[in-house]
């Protein structure tokens, strides 16, 4: 890799297009914003960019339950939006220039909890930001998860298989730089669930970026 490749994602985009022409299993991609995003997120490494692009699309056939029924106007998506808030906070960045993606219950009833519809909508949003060029690929992201109201009833509706696949998609598929995963309003049961079932699925580098708070999280405002 040369210095010009590191500083010139457009060069990697050109090479990605050449590589894509030879990949019959991938769709014909004309969105330069997505290719630029993946190139920049790969820090000018063409081989890494090719691998990122490959898994970004092949995962949609490997894990169809996360990437089907993606109509934002259908009833399932509308119900999801009424039960779970999930979005980048507008016009807000951390002191180190990172974006914040907030996830929070709007309906705390476990009977309304549909983890697959929530994951589908979250990944739709991440796709939208990557494809539209609305997210700086070198800008870090903090996931801020408000666990107020979370209970054993919610946890019991998340299968180990779905959890493993969600971790894989979040840390290995999407071309995003996760700077931290912050949980607030966490009770003792949910804290135990996060530390014993969720965190071990992440690589050590990301596990060190988990921060868990109860109802006292004034430290976040510093």
Automatic annotation (TrEMBL):
SUPFAM superfamilies associated with the record: CRAL/TRIO domain (SSF52087), CRAL/TRIO N-terminal domain (SSF46938)
Family annotation (PROSITE patterns): CRAL_TRIO
Pfam families: CRAL_TRIO
Entry-linked Gene3D superfamilies: CRAL-TRIO lipid binding domain
Residues in CRAL-TRIO domain copies: 76-222
Gene Ontology CC: membrane
GO MF annotation terms: phosphatidylinositol bisphosphate binding
Recorded coiled-coil stretches: none
Protein name: Putative phosphatidylinositol transfer protein sec14
Lineage of source species: Eukaryota, Metazoa, Ecdysozoa, Arthropoda, Hexapoda
């Amino acid at each position: 890799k040369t210095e010009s490749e590191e500083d010139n994602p457009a060069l990697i985009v050109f090479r990605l297009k050449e590589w894509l022409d030879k990949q019959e299993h991938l769709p014909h991609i004309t969105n330069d914003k997505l290719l630029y995003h993946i190139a920049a997120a790969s820090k000018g490494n063409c081989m890494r960019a090719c691998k990122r692009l490959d898994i970004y699309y092949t995962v949609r056939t490997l894990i169809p339950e996360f990437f089907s029924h993606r109509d934002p106007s259908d009833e399932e998506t509308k119900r999801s939006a009424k039960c779970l808030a999930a979005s980048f906070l507008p016009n807000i960045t951390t002191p180190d220039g990172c974006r914040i993606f907030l996830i929070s219950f709007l309906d705390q009833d476990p009977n309304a909890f549909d983890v697959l519809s929530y994951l589908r909508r979250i990944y739709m949003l991440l796709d939208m930001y990557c494809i539209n060029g609305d997210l700086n690929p070198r800008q870090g992201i903090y996931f801020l998860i408000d666990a107020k109201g979370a209970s054993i009833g919610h946890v019991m509706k998340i299968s180990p298989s779905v959890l493993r696949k969600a971790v894989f998609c979040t840390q290995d598929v999407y071309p995003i730089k996760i700077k931290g995963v912050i949980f607030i309003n966490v009770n003792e049961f949910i804290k135990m669930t996060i530390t014993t079932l969720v965190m071990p699925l992440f690589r050590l580098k990301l596990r060190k970026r988990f921060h868990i708070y109860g109802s006292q999280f004034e430290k976040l405002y510093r």
